[in-house]
Specification:
With about 350 residues, this protein is of the alpha+beta class. It contains 12 helices and 10 strands.
Length: about 350
């Protein structure tokens, strides 16, 4: 498994005793999300260090910028710098259980579902297994196309169905002129199939729109509007669909009013699809799973949250989407990192 440990940790500030205490503090935080005190740490270390000795070590780690005390006389928590050092140098990545593998693989079995429906189920499964919010940035449909069809839904709406040569199915609902005859939908589909079959959407889109603008296509006005709507709905960044499941899990981590504000900010962040597409671009900079902590990304700088994300690629090794888990900074990184990595690889194989 490729995990991008982009920061080389500097353990020069830690002797072995300090490192042992530091590890216990961070692992306790990841388990509970709460500060840990010297007496509890002494017990976790089987009494090898007294509470007084641990307090001295805590002071050294705090002076090094790796720990902080949220309240007077409270225990200690890792700073963002300390958590990053732990993830990059001390985190031991676990393995998925057989049940977890089967749960993920089960979402890729069967047929008759569109790619977006399958990815939605994958996001729900990832949320359920991790206990936090699962997200998928679905890919643009860039494979050569095999067929396009318009299905009337009545009341001025139609379903656009696009099938790629690889068998992937994508659909969107578009607005159409009220009272549009069925023949106009058939004519629009025939027109697009003639020009798009065997080409990608991006290859065919600009030429079709130019033809419509020049009014050189032999289409009546209503049919031309259907064609334009059917092509335009997949254009630009909006053609990438963000799927987020498990937002409610984030509400279970609330301990104070400040936490409620943090989660509210995170919900706002998750609605900002442009920011998440930027996260995808950051994920593309690494070769494997990336872990973003708080202010390391502009998206989460105000919400005190973390995201574990991995890109998935097509057969040309181009990044076409991303999958991840979002939650508080005390995520179970050792368990979720391999979960995200395995799922991203499964999606890449399916699309490939």
């Amino acid at each position: 498994m490729a995990v991008d440990r982009s920061v080389s940790p500097d353990f020069g500030v830690l002797n072995q005793r300090n490192r042992d205490v530091f590890r216990e503090i961070v692992e306790s935080y990841l388990e509970t999300g709460t500060p840990v005190g010297s007496r509890t740490l002494s017990q976790r270390l089987n009494g090898s260090l007294s509470p007084a000795s641990i307090r001295n070590v805590m002071s050294d780690l705090e002076a090094a910028g790796l720990l902080f005390a949220p309240h007077t006389s409270a225990g200690r928590l890792p700073t963002e710098r300390g958590l990053r050092m732990f993830i990059d140098g001390l985190l031991e990545i676990g393995d998925l259980s057989e049940d977890e593998r089967q749960a993920i693989e089960g979402q890729f079995a069967g047929s008759g579902r569109s790619l977006e429906e399958m990815l939605t189920q994958v996001s729900e499964t990832l949320s359920g297994l991790s206990g936090w919010a699962g997200l998928v940035l679905a890919p643009k449909l860039e494979a050569p196309l095999k067929h396009i069809e318009f299905v009337s839904l009545g009341a001025g709406r139609a379903l656009v169905v696009i099938v790629s040569e690889a068998g992937a199915v994508e659909n969107r609902i578009i607005d159409v002129p009220a009272g549009l005859p069925h023949s106009a939908l058939t004519e629009a589909a025939n027109y697009l199939n003639d020009r798009m079959r065997g080409r990608t959407l991006s290859e065919a889109r600009s030429g079709i729109l130019q033809e419509l603008e020049a009014q050189s296509a032999e289409l009546d006005l209503l049919t031309a509007k259907v064609v334009e709507s059917g092509v335009a709905i997949w254009g630009g960044d909006s053609s990438q669909t963000l799927i987020v499941r498990g937002r409610a899990n984030l509400l279970e981590d609330l301990n104070a009013v400040a936490d409620l504000e943090r989660v509210r900010q995170l919900f706002d962040d998750l609605e900002n699809k442009r920011a998440l597409i930027e996260i995808l671009q950051l994920a593309d900079d690494g070769q494997g799973v990336r872990v973003f902590l708080g202010s390391e990304s502009q998206l989460f700088s105000l919400s005190g949250s973390s995201m574990i994300v991995a890109p998935y690629r097509n057969t040309s090794q181009q990044v076409i989407g991303a999958i991840g888990v979002v939650g508080p900074t005390h995520l179970n990184y050792a368990r979720i990192v391999p979960m995200v990595d395995f799922t991203a690889r499964m999606i890449g194989r399916l699309i490939g």
